[in-house]
Amino acid sequence: MRAHLIDKVILPDEPTDPRPRPGGGWLVTSRDDPRQVTVLDSGLRTVRRLRMPDVPGITGRAVDPTGRRVAVSRAECVQVNDGGSADAVDWRVEHGSWDRFPVGAGACVFSLDGTELWATVRPREDLYDDDDDEDDGGGFGGGDECWVLDAVTGERLGRTELISELSFSSLLPHPDGRHMGVLVGEGQDGSFGHWVRREGRRIVRTPTDLLGLRDRSLAAIAPDGRHYLNQSWTTLSSHAFPTAELVAERPIDGILPEGPAWRYGFAYYDASTVLATFHEDGPAVSTTLLRSPSLEPLGEIAYPDGAPYAGVASGGDGSWVTVRGNEPARWSFEPAAT
Fold it and tell me: 87, exposed or middle or buried, with CB in 10 Å at 0-12, 13-18, 19+?
C-alpha cells in the first residue's frame, strides 16, 4: 500500500513527534526549546504557539481543547497556566513528590470538553482528611493515584488508587467523554492499564484486561470507542469496550520486525484499521496496516520517496501524521494496484 501525501507544512523549528490533542488536531514541542509548544489543527495549520511555564520538574503537559490554557505535571504539584503568559498561574494543586524513591513521573490531560483535568499523582498522606473516602481502593496505601480536578478552579472532584508505584504513566481520553484510559508503567515490572470514570465524588476503576495481567498496557483507542488495543512485551491484543472481552491476539513479531517493546507504536487510522509501526532510533522502519478488530495484516505502507519518517501518529480520522526535520506531513493510503 502506498502513502499519499495530503498536506505538508514547515515549522520555524524542528518539532518532537506529534501528539493528538483533545478536540482534534496536534501538539508538537520544539526540540530546541521544550517550553515552546505549537498547536496545529487537523490539517496541520498553526492555531497557536504557546509557552510552557519555566519551572523545574515537568513530567507531563497538556493543552485544553480551546488551545488557550496549558497544564503541567511537576515533581510536587499539578498546575494550570494561561497559555498567553507562561507566568500567569491560574491554580496549583500539591501532591507527594515524584522525586522520592521509587522515582516516578506524572501525567495530565484535559477532558474532551475541557471542564476537567485528569492527572496521575503521587499521594501525600497529610493532604487527606481522616474521613476522606473518595477513593475506591480501600484507603490510603494503594500506591500512586489518579485524580480528576476542576479545570477552572483546581478543586479535586475525585481520586482512585492505581495499586502501583509508577515509573511513568499516560492518559488517553475515551471518545465517549466519560472514561479515561490510564497506562501504568512499573519499569522492569512491566506495564498495565485501567479504565477510570467519575461517578459523583468517586472514580470507578476497572482493568483494561479481564485477567488483570500486569504485562499488558493500553496502546490505542478506536475513534468510535468500540474497541481498543493492549500491548504486552510480545503480543498485540484487540478488546471490546466496555466489556474488555478479548477479540483477537497476535504475536507482534508476526506483524513487524522483531525488537524491544518500546520500539513499537500503534494507532487507529480509522475505526476499522490500525497503523502498526516499528521505530529504529527515531525514523519508522516499517508501518503495517491491520484490520480492526481482527488484527489481520493488510499490507505494508510504502512512502513515495522510499525514505523512513519519524513520529507516525493518527487521530483516527482516516489519515496519519509524520515528521521529518521541521516538516510535519499528513498522509492517507492508496491500496497497491493489483
Answer: exposed
Rounded distance between C-alpha atoms, residue 89 and residue 73, angstroms: 13
Whole domain around residue 238: which residue ranges? Answer: 1-12+213-338
Same domain flag for 193 and 93? yes
End-to-end CA distance of the chain: 11
Which one, of 137, 112, 110, lies nearest residue 123 by Cα? 137
Residue 124 sits in the same domain as residue 221: no
**What residues are paired with 212 via a beta bridge?**
none
118 and 230: one domain?
Answer: no
Identify the H or E element spanning 10.
Answer: none
Tell me the C-alpha to C-alpha distance, in Å, between residue 220 and each of 228, 231, 236, 299: 6, 9, 11, 20
> Is the predicted pLDDT of residue 319 greater than 70, yes or no?
yes
Residue in this structure with the C-alpha cell 530546541, named with its chain if needed: 32
Express each pLDDT in 60-75 by its tens digit.
999 999 888 999 999 9
Select from 105, 221, 211 the least CA-distant residue to 164: 105
Identify whether 45 is part of a domain. no
Q: Tell me the CATH number at 324.
A: 2.40.128
Strands 227-231, 309-313: pairing is unpaired
Burial of 271 (0-12, 13-18, 19+ CB in 10 A): middle
Give the bridge partners for 109, in sequence order: 118
Q: Which residue has the cell 484486561?
A: 209
Rounded-to-integer distance, Cα 85 and Cα 83, Å: 5
Report pLDDT digits (tens) over 106-159: 999 999 999 999 999 999 876 655 445 454 443 345 689 999 999 999 999 999
User: Mean pLDDT over all residues of the chain?
Assistant: 88
